[in-house]
C-alpha cells in the first residue's frame, strides 16, 4: 500500500493510494498524463479500481517502514481517497482503522481530498489527533466556475458543510485552493468560517513541472474560451495571497508545496514580494455568476 516517494513529494516518505483512477476527472488533473493512467485502459475520469486491503499485511508493512525511519504519508497522490464508492466499500476507512491500531507506526498522515465523504470519518481522524490533517480542496466559490473546470466534483456547498462538521469535531483541517480558479470577492471570508488555514497553489508551480504538465493539457484554452484569461497568469497567486492574508492572517496562509508539508516542517511564508506594485494590490476580478 505504501509507495516510497523518492523525494518528489517533499516532506513525505510514502504515498498511499487506496484506489486507482478517479471518477472526479478534473479537467486540469495532470495524473491523466502520468504512467499510472497512460497505461491503464479507459479515459481518465471514467474508471476507479478498488484495491483489496489485507489488514495484517498493511500493518506489517507499516511496522517495516517504521523500522527503516520516518513515516510521513501523503494520501493520495494519484487518486482521491474519498471516491464515491468509498461510501459503500470503506477502503480509506479501513486504512484509518489500521493506523489507529498503532499510532507509533507513523509520524503524520495528510488526507488530500475534495469529497465531503471525508466528514463521515471525522471520529476516526479526530482520534489520530495532530498526526492527521484533512486538506480539502475548494478552488473557487462559484459553482459555475466549478462546473467549467471540475464538472464531476462534489458541489462547493457540500464541501463547506463537510469542513464545518470536521471543525466541530475538532479535526485539524485546511482548505487547498489548488489550483486557484476564478473566485468572487467574498471567497476568503467564506472559507474563514470553516477553517483556520489555507494553502494557495497555481498551475505554474503546483503541477510539479513548472506549468508544463498543465500547458500540455491545454487548460489555457478553457480560460480563453470563457473570457477568463486574466486569471490564467502568475500574478493571480500573488493577488489571491494578499486577499487571503488580509482575512486569515499571514501565519495561516501558505503557498505552493510549502502548504502541503506536514505542519511541523512548513517554513514561515515570506512577506509579500516587493516586486508587486501597490496598484496590483487589488481584489481579484469578479468571477462570473
Ligand atoms: S480529484 Fe484529484 S486525482 Fe481526481 S481527477 Fe481531480 S485532481 Fe485528479
From TrEMBL:
<dbReference type="Pfam" id="PF04055">
    <property type="entry name" value="Radical_SAM"/>
</dbReference>
<dbReference type="GO" id="GO:0051536">
    <property type="term" value="F:iron-sulfur cluster binding"/>
</dbReference>
<dbReference type="GO" id="GO:0003824">
    <property type="term" value="F:catalytic activity"/>
</dbReference>
<dbReference type="InterPro" id="IPR058240">
    <property type="entry name" value="rSAM_sf"/>
</dbReference>
<feature type="region of interest" description="Disordered">
    <location>
        <begin position="267"/>
        <end position="289"/>
    </location>
</feature>
<dbReference type="InterPro" id="IPR040086">
    <property type="entry name" value="MJ0683-like"/>
</dbReference>
<dbReference type="InterPro" id="IPR007197">
    <property type="entry name" value="rSAM"/>
</dbReference>
<protein>
    <submittedName>
        <fullName>Radical SAM protein</fullName>
    </submittedName>
</protein>
<feature type="compositionally biased region" description="Basic and acidic residues">
    <location>
        <begin position="267"/>
        <end position="280"/>
    </location>
</feature>
Amino acid at each position: 500500500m505504501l509507495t516510497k516517494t523518492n523525494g518528489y513529494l517533499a516532506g513525505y516518505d510514502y504515498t498511499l493510494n487506496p484506489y486507482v483512477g478517479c471518477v472526479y476527472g478534473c479537467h486540469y488533473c495532470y495524473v491523466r498524463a502520468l504512467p499510472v493512467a497512460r497505461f491503464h485502459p479507459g479515459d481518465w475520469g471514467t474508471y476507479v479500481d478498488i484495491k483489496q486491503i489485507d489488514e495484517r499485511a498493511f500493518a506489517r508493512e507499516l511496522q517495516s517502514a517504521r523500522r527503516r525511519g520516518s513515516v510521513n504519508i501523503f494520501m493520495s497522490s494519484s487518486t482521491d481517497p474519498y471516491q464515491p464508492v468509498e461510501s459503500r466499500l470503506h477502503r480509506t476507512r479501513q486504512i484509518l482503522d489500521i493506523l489507529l491500531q498503532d499510532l507509533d507506526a507513523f509520524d503524520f498522515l495528510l488526507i488530500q481530498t475534495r469529497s465531503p465523504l471525508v466528514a463521515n470519518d471525522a471520529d476516526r481522524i479526530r482520534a489520530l489527533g495532530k498526526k492527521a490533517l484533512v486538506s480539502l480542496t475548494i478552488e473557487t466559490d462559484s459553482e459555475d466556475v466549478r462546473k467549467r473546470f471540475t464538472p464531476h466534483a462534489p458541489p462547493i456547498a457540500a464541501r463547506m458543510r463537510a469542513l464545518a462538521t470536521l471543525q466541530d469535531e475538532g479535526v485539524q483541517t485546511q482548505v487547498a485552493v489548488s489550483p486557484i480558479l476564478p473566485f468572487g470577492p467574498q471567497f476568503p471570508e467564506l472559507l474563514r468560517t470553516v477553517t483556520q488555514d489555507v494553502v494557495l497553489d497555481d498551475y505554474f508551480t503546483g503541477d510539479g513541472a513548472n506549468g508544463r504538465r498543465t500547458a500540455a493539457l491545454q487548460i489555457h484554452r478553457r480560460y480563453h474560451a470563457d473570457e477568463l484569461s486574466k486569471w490564467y497568469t502568475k500574478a493571480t497567486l500573488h493577488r489571491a495571497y494578499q486577499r487571503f492574508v488580509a482575512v486569515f492572517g499571514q501565519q495561516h496562509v501558505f503557498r505552493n508545496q510549502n502548504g502541503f508539508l506536514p505542519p511541523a516542517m512548513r517554513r514561515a511564508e515570506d512577506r509579500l514580494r516587493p516586486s508587486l506594485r501597490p496598484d496590483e494590490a487589488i481584489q481579484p476580478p469578479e468571477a462570473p455568476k
